[in-house]
Amino acid sequence: MSTARSIRRFTDEPVDDATLARCFEAATWAPSGANAQEWRFVVLRSPEQRAVVAEAATRALEIIEVAYGMTRPDPDDTGRRARDNRATYELHDRAGEFTSVLFAQKRLRMASDMLLAGSIFPAMQNFLLAARAQGLGACLTSWAAYGGEELLRTAVGVPDDWIIPGHIVVGWPKGGHGPVRRRPWQDAVNVDTWGAR
Ligand SMILES: Cc1cc2nc3c(=O)[nH]c(=O)nc-3n(C[C@H](O)[C@H](O)[C@H](O)COP(=O)(O)O)c2cc1C
């Protein structure tokens, strides 16, 4: 977990079915509300679907740039932020070259979208950890949000009664994994009362 960083650069080697299958099996070991398991994982790897993913990535990038005040880094800038941003641009620019997976969850009567999403995020995390355990790299994306949702929904044929809370790009990493950079866990923990460390 401590080296399961987002990977945004991949080699040309395709992800074989057996490796991907182990990620999906791990995904289905996750909990879901009432153990309903109303999830669907859609692998996007045909040239046609990759082209749609690329378009969704472009649309998401337009939003992300504004939201995070991100601009393409100067080629000479070797600072950490520039390096991170460079990798993010590369992932979005080359999105059409990679295999990725859409995570869909069936709507259920009474449950809010947030509650429904809670039934698929654990599966996505299991998928990420299984990918990491096998040496794969992966990156969660927002490409099925923003303008990309309708594009992907139409291209894949996701029915209206399914939500699409997530999307993950997966491949063999160029370079190493991790470690993750996080604030100390103690900053996030309160005892009994909000703010009580
Ligand atoms: C819900 C969600 C959406 C994300 N969307 C994107 C995205 O669209 N593009 C991207 O490059 N990274 C995306 N990320 C990856 C985060 O930027 C990344 O996990 C975070 O910066 C922490 O970095 P690390 O995973 O390398 O530790 C997303 C992560 C989450 C959880």
UniProtKB/TrEMBL annotation:
This is Nitroreductase family protein. InterPro entries: Nitroreductase, Nitroreductase-like, Nitroreductase/BluB. Residues 5-172 form the Nitroreductase domain.
